[in-house]
Design brief:
This protein is α+β, with helices and mostly antiparallel strands. The protein has two helices and four strands; from the N terminus they run ββαββα.
Length: 129
């Protein structure tokens, strides 16, 4: 993956000891008891992405934990410890996505059209099949 795909992210804070890395990502969303679980689930791929990048840069560290800190929810912290298996699955999915993009063999995600820079003023995809 490293020689085919360029990955970039901005991590808010990393704490590293001899055998562990803690990743912190602050979130300023409006969070309620009702949407807290959904917010954590929505940000989980970003947290995994950061943890994966750290694992590639520091392969000697075996314990990597990602933390989401919700500033508008009394600094509630959602923590997730990642394993080598998590990173391997993530890397496999990156390779799969990269190959699909290279071969132009992927479905449109029409649910995201309103946020896409290629959508028209009505949020409709303007990219042709």
């Amino acid at each position: 993956v490293k020689d085919k795909i360029y990955l970039q992210g901005i991590i808010d804070k990393i704490l590293k000891t001899d055998d562990e890395i803690q990743i912190y990502d602050w979130k300023s969303d409006k969070v309620t008891n009702e949407n807290l679980e959904e917010k954590c689930k929505n940000y989980e791929p970003q947290l995994l992405f950061y943890a994966y990048l750290v694992s590639v840069l520091s392969p000697e560290i075996k314990n990597i934990t990602g933390n989401l800190v919700f500033l508008n929810k009394d600094n509630y912290i959602y923590s997730k410890k990642y394993s080598k298996e998590d990173f391997q699955k993530f890397e496999d999915s990156l390779v799969e996505m990269s190959n699909a993009i290279d071969s132009r063999n992927y479905p449109k995600n029409l649910s995201s059209c309103s946020k896409c820079k290629f959508a028209n003023a009505d949020g409709v995809c303007v990219v042709k099949d």
